[in-house]
Amino acid sequence: MKQNIMKLRNNVWGTVKAFLRSENYKYKLFLIYSLSLLFNGWFFGTVLMAPDSYSYISAIDTLLNGEPDVLRTPVYPLLLGMMRMIFPVSFVNIAVIFQYAVFFLSIFYFHKICVFFFRSPVFSFFTTLLYACHPYVALWSSYILTESLASSGLVFWLWFLIDYYQKRKYGALSGSLVVTFLLIFHRPSFLYLIPFLLIFWGYQMYKEKCSVRSWTGLLGTVLCVLCMAVYSSWFSGVYGVRMMSEVSVINEYNILRERDLLELDGVSDAFRNDMANFDAVAEKDYFKEYFYLSATYGLPEMKRVTSQSLKMNYPEYLTKTEKQISVIAKTPLLIHCHEIDTNYFPYRIVKILSFKVKFGFLYVVLWLSLLVYIVKMVTTKKLPCVSLFVWGLVWANYVVILLGAQAEWARLMMPSYPLIFLLTAQLISCVKIDISKVMFR
Hints:
By secondary structure, this protein is an all-alpha fold.
């Protein structure tokens, strides 16, 4: 009897190992999607509204009136607007269903990225499973916010570049440029993608000896920049400041006020009096304060005040930003957006999983990854271009947040979590497998 049990166990384990090591990805994807639906089915159809959700909905009418919205770039509000036209009563429910559909589609392409990135069926399977089943990632799809589509969109963007890197196809080239445009006009924090695209197409021009395809990619990137300039000019014509959104000024103002670095040179006496009234309040709400001042004195004045404050106090601003790094390191890495009913069972799962890992874990992953890349470069005399590209994307996202939007770091970092999963799994592969045998892209 004991021998039969042992034999059965060995047969089962052998079957599992054979399945994990096989390159029959069709059945693996079926299992991943099944488990993702099982885990994420708790959230499906649930509409969650954050404080910022209402500003995206109100931006619809501003854009339909032929003006840029002061807070929101056009892609997400226009998407909501199209759904409101077709489904006027239940458009937020349809938006959530759409976000889940895009997320489920991104699982397929994330798996393709993993297959390329690891060259190991086992690691590609489990990394995709983590992305597909972690309730934190799926939960954002229930919010009327940009986070879910930003995360899925970054997966598509990376896959298009990898696909072009492998096959030099015009479809991948066009896809990468279209997704770049949509991501930047979805949320302007994706501006950091432009330098990476310029590096990518510059590298492709070198490899392809200035082929028509690589020139098309480079000129397409320049066209994206020109579209941003045109939109900024349109914004300036309405609000008096050349930018894509007021959000960056709001975040800068909040940081400057928290650090007592705001300079009021050149402001009116009325402005100073209003500031004094806000300072007299025991409970500080710098966002509320900003919106009052902006409505009273205008965006150009608020931009002037924040710009001069940064210019006059930049060394101290950087010093305090450096201290902020250690503060952020102690906060949860996988943090939810805002409170949900604590009796809601999936929320309890998210809360348990989200608060186990601190943000300092990201620092460890990034620095260890860099050390591994240096070792591989020294030992193999080859540059792990794709790995460094992914590593640089995560760093660039973090630096953008650290310098300009520390009050929103949790939300702005969220789209990079698929990339963090990739880097973490890559480090684990170096522990599980002899580092000299690990193949780096």
